Amino acid sequence: MEDWSSELPFYKKSLEIALKCYPSDHYNLSKLYSSVATMYQTLEDYSSGLPFHEKALEILQKIKPSNNAELFAAYIHISGIYFKLGEDSTGMLFVERVIELQPESLPEDHPFQILRQHFASLREKS
């Protein structure tokens, strides 16, 4: 098994450098924030990764249309983290956002569409 914790400082350093090079709402920053968040998820340190996912989402909300597939993915990631942290009601808020979204140009059999439909059926059961 690889020691992912040794990789985390490099991801954070990349983000630190990029913050000096790009405007605060640049797309590349959203990708770097997501990468750091994903690294924390890999380490199962969900509470540390959550702010990075939220920052990536904040940037995407500014620069992408509301039906963008990357926004959809960001909401899914954040909902999953809240569920992992035991904060189900907050996780459900993000699930509701996923259900509302219609990702652009995705066929009905795309995994995002299938996941969206699954979330909608879960909501109907509760």
Salient structural properties:
6 helices, globular, Serine Threonine Protein Phosphatase 5, Tetratricopeptide repeat, single chain, mainly alpha, 73% helix, 0% strand, 126 residues
Describe the structure.
Keywords: Repeat, TPR repeat. This is Tetratricopeptide repeat protein. InterPro entries: TPR-like_helical_dom_sf (IPR011990). It is a single chain. This protein is mostly helical. It has two domains: 1-63, Serine Threonine Protein Phosphatase 5, Tetratricopeptide repeat; 66-126. Helices cover 73% and strands 0% of the residues. The chain is built from six helices and no strands. It has helices at residues 8-21, 27-42, 46-63, 69-84, 88-100, 111-125. Helix 3 runs antiparallel to helix 4 (69-84), helix 4 (69-84) packs antiparallel against helix 5 and helix 5 packs across helix 6. The longest helix is centred in the middle third of the chain and has 18 residues, at 46-63. It is globular. The N and C termini lie far apart (39 Å). The mean pLDDT is 87.
